[in-house]
Design a protein that fits this description.
This protein is 58% helix and 2% strand. By secondary structure, it is mostly helical. α14 packs parallel to α17 and α21 crosses α23. The two termini are 94 Å apart. It is found in: Endosome membrane; Golgi apparatus, trans-Golgi network membrane; Recycling endosome. This is Vacuolar protein sorting-associated protein 53 homolog.
């Protein structure tokens, strides 16, 4: 009979035989798993109600047939119509082991302490919960106590405020009488002071009027100043009639004094220029003291009349129609003025105090007369005559400064000239010396201590100012002279030729630029002595003009052309030259000339910057912004850039035939790896020929030699990689040979700054980075070519890993170098597009070169062998 065994793990049927209900029979193995689990057999019947007695006899009420079944307590089997759902609980497993299960749940002895810990936690929780039963009541009680405390505090504050008000009222009551006394004292003091001032003012006005009538100028000079000072205290009382009346009396006395003093001077100095018999020198001296206190117009009127009377002879002698009035006889004019000043000091020096400076006003008339005559005869002014007159005038102003030191004409009072702060200009030589002094414009002078500027002459420009409108003659003359100087420089260069190599002149600064700036120095110093206004701006414009002409005519105009006279080949034609043919290059003399022009342009650039600073220091402050030599400095920078580019093009063009020969070689036929290829030897030869010459001639400008190296690397390496792509197809051995050649070129380029030099210097980090980055890319290209293209996925991943270039054009060139068929290339390109990494957020998705870690983790045995060969050769 068949039945379902519940005790069996597989839950399949178990076959049990039973001959009677008292014979338990024998349990047979499970048909599915082979176990011997006993079961309760249920016979197949009509599946209606069954009855089982105490002895295990089962009776079916529906069936005629009596069914018997053996009941086994250990297991219950069900017919196939019953199903038991599977369970993942370990307790339901047939091989369940209680000991192992408990050990798995409680692996350590510390678990025995868990009940105690739980008991303590329960006690703590119980305590906390019980403690929170009265929290609400405690909080309400605390809030009520706080409110009561606040109310008490407000009550105390109110009490204190009331007491303070009472105290204040009490103090006011106590000090009421004292405050009244204090106000009375202050008012009394003010009244006494005012009355004293009023008494002084009234008495002073009376005395002033009396002394004015008696012409007692000595006493009036001191009294008038005091009366004016006292009157200032009554400005707020001018509404009082008596005070206003006193003020009007003071003004009337001042006007009367002014009229009396003018009348006294008219009487003392009649039109004939002689003073009255008896000599009123003391009276007039005191009158001058009074004039200093009066309105400044009174003093100016006195001086004007005095000068007019004493210069009447001057106006007659030096009229416009007189020969002695012209600029060529300007010495006579100044000689007459000097005699008059000496005579003035002898006759009137004690009469006029120094504070009036009557003696310093006379040159103003001289300036007016010179301006008038030069406007009339402007066409007769020549530059030599103008400079002669300016020089004599400057000497005369210097004489005035030495004799009347500290005198100024702005306000008629002595004023000590201010010493300006130390100059930050790099020109440290004394510019007041001879005009033939050479200009010092070497770099590095900016760190030297600056010499304080000599204080300005207070009389500078008092007469020479009249020449400023005519300085255009001087500017035009300098324009002509500089034009002739530039033409002479051009002629001298053509006559002498470029600097000779292997001598001191090679790579040195051209002497003409030093001559140009020496002449600039002379013009700048001379013009600054004449004027620091618009003529300096005009001179700056002339400087700019000839700086540009020097840059183009002398420097750029003498740069060698890109076509060599010896070879007769252009740079473009070099690419068509066959291997081993003659390469058109600059001669040794031409290389030295380019370096010399570069050094000269660098010197002119630095000197022009310093010239701009010096011009700004010389010119008036209001005109400083109009001086800008940036355009000229940019011009010299262009000359420097063009010179470096010529040197790079020359060396680059010399290497082109070798690279062309490399691209035309049959690299698929190379059978073994040897020493470096002939084209590498040719490139190294050209580098060793040019670079030492350029380095030696640019020894004074190392930064531009570094720029040359960087520009050459940026030009040569991409060109080398482009020719590398033209090498197709390439065999494995050919790729190894190219890799060896690439490494050789890389080492030569790294050593480029110091190649052929006895002193080995470390190459600049910026240059080394460019070479390593570029040549490593070339090496990675060859390593990708050497890698097998089967399986394609590995090849594509290796390409992406080594080159990190997402460009399909580059990948296409790699496939061409490997010599793959078009069908293979098509499948490779499709796979490459699928394997491309996703672009980062915000990126453009284009390929980028990342060579920070170019070496792959594992190299093939052939590549390692090749590297050992390279190290052994080096």
């Amino acid at each position: 009979m068949d039945g379902l065994c519940q005790g069996c793990v597989c839950e399949l049927s178990v076959f049990i035989q039973a001959d009677s209900h008292r014979n338990f029979g024998r349990s047979q193995p499970c048909r599915a798993c082979g176990c011997s689990a006993p079961g309760h057999l249920l016979e197949k019947c009509c599946e209606t109600q069954l009855e089982v007695d105490a002895e295990g006899i089962k009776s079916c009420r529906s069936c005629v047939k009596l069914q018997k079944s053996l009941i086994l307590v250990d297991c219950v089997c069900f017919p196939p119509s019953f199903q038991v759902f599977p369970s993942q609980d370990p307790l339901d497993r047939a091989d369940f082991n209680a000991v192992e299960y408990i050990n798995a749940l409680f692996p350590t002895e510390q678990v025995s302490n868990a009940p105690n810990t739980l008991r303590r936690l329960d006690d703590n929780i119980r305590t906390v919960v019980r403690g929170q039963t009265n929290v609400g009541q405690d909080g309400r009680q605390a809030l009520e106590e706080a409110q009561k405390a606040i109310q008490q505090l407000f009550g105390k504050i109110k009490d204190i405020k009331d007491k303070a008000e009472k105290s204040e009222q009490m103090v006011k009551e106590i000090t009421r009488d004292i405050k009244q006394l204090d106000h009375a004292k202050r008012h009394l003091t003010t009244s006494i002071t005012t009355l004293n001032h009023l008494h002084m003012l009234a008495g002073g006005v009376d005395s002033l009027e009396a002394m004015t009538r008696r012409r007692q100028y000595g006493e009036v000079a001191n009294l008038l100043q005091g009366v004016v000072n006292v009157l200032e205290h009554f400005n707020k009382y001018m509404g009082i009639p008596q005070i206003r009346q006193l003020s009007e009396r003071v003004k009337a006395a001042q006007n009367e004094l002014g009229q009396q003093i003018l009348a006294d001077f008219e009487e003392a100095f009649p039109s004939q220029g002689t003073k009255r018999t008896g000599g009123p020198s003391n009276v007039l001296r005191d009158a001058c003291l009074v004039a200093n206190v009066l309105d400044p117009r009174i003093k100016q009127e006195i001086i004007k009349k005095f000068i007019k009377q004493h210069l009447s002879e001057y106006l007659v002698l030096f009229q416009e129609n007189q020969d002695v009035a012209w600029l060529d006889k300007i010495d006579r004019r100044y000689a007459w003025i000097k005699r008059q000043l000496v005579d003035y000091e002898e006759k009137y020096g004690r009469m006029f105090p120094e504070t009036t400076f009557v003696f310093s006003i006379s040159p103003l008339s001289c300036r007016a007369e010179l301006s008038k005559i030069m406007r009339t005869r402007a066409k007769e002014i020549e530059v030599k005559l103008l400079l002669f007159a300016i020089q004599r005038t400057t000497n005369f102003e210097g004489l005035l400064a030495k004799r009347f030191s500290g005198c100024t004409l702005a306000d008629g009072t002595g004023k000590k000239p201010e010493v300006p702060p130390p100059s930050t200009n790099p020109f440290l030589e004394d510019e007041t010396g001879p005009e033939t002094d050479e200009i010092v414009m070497e770099k590095g002078d900016t760190d030297k201590p600056k010499k304080p500027k000599v204080p300005d002459n207070p009389f500078h420009g008092i007469v020479s100012k009249c020449f400023e409108p005519h300085l255009y003659v001087y500017i035009e003359s300098q324009d002509k002279n500089l034009g002739e100087l530039i033409d002479r420089f051009v002629a001298d260069f053509k006559a002498q030729g470029p600097p000779k190599p292997n001598v001191d002149e090679g790579g040195a600064v051209l002497p003409s630029c030093a001559d140009l700036f020496v002449y600039y120095k002379k013009c700048m110093v001379q013009c600054s002595q004449l004027s620091t206004g618009e003529p300096m701006i005009a001179l700056t414009t002339i400087f700019q003009k000839y700086l540009r002409e020097y840059a183009w005519k002398i420097l750029s105009g003498n740069l060698p052309k890109t076509t060599s006279s010896s070879g007769g080949l252009t740079i473009t034609s070099l690419l068509k030259e066959k291997e081993g043919s003659e390469v058109a290059k600059f001669t040794l003399e031409e290389l030295c000339l380019i370096c010399s022009i570069l050094s000269t342009a660098e010197y002119c650039l630095a000197t022009t910057q310093q010239l701009e600073e010096k011009l700004k220091e010389k010119v008036d402050t209001s005109l400083m912004e109009r001086i800008n030599l940036t355009g000229e400095m940019d011009t010299f920078s262009i000359v420097i850039s063009n010179s470096i580019q010529l040197l790079v093009q020359d060396l680059d063009a010399a290497c082109d035939p070798a690279l062309t020969a490399m691209s035309k070689m049959q690299w698929q036929n190379v059978e073994h790896v040897g020493d470096q290829s002939p084209y590498v030897t040719s490139v190294i030869l050209h580098i060793k020929q040019n670079v030492p010459i350029i380095r030696d001639n640019l020894a004074s400008t190392r930064k531009y030699f570094t720029q040359f190296c960087i520009k050459f690397a940026n030009s040569f390496i991409p060109k080398f990689i482009n020719h590398l792509f033209k090498c197709k197809p390439i065999s494995m051995v050919g790729a190894e040979q190219l890799l060896l050649d690439t490494h050789s070129l890389k080492m030569v380029l790294l050593d480029l700054p110091s190649i052929g030099s006895q002193v080995v210097r470390k190459a600049p980090a910026s240059y080394t980075k460019i070479v390593v980055k570029g040549m490593t890319r070339a090496e990675m290209i060859l390593k990708v070519v050497m890698a097998p293209h089967e399986p394609p996925v590995v090849f594509v991943d290796n390409y992406i890993k080594l080159l990190a270039d997402c460009s399909t054009d580059t990948f296409q060139k790699i496939l061409d170098m490997k010599g793959l068929k078009r069908s293979e290339q098509s499948s490779m390109l499709d796979l490459f597009r699928l394997r491309l990494p996703s672009p980062p957020p915000g990126g453009d998705g284009s390929g980028s070169l990342s060579l920070s870690a170019p070496t792959p983790e594992q190299e093939s045995s052939r590549i390692r062998k090749l590297e050992k060969l390279i190290k052994k050769r080096l």
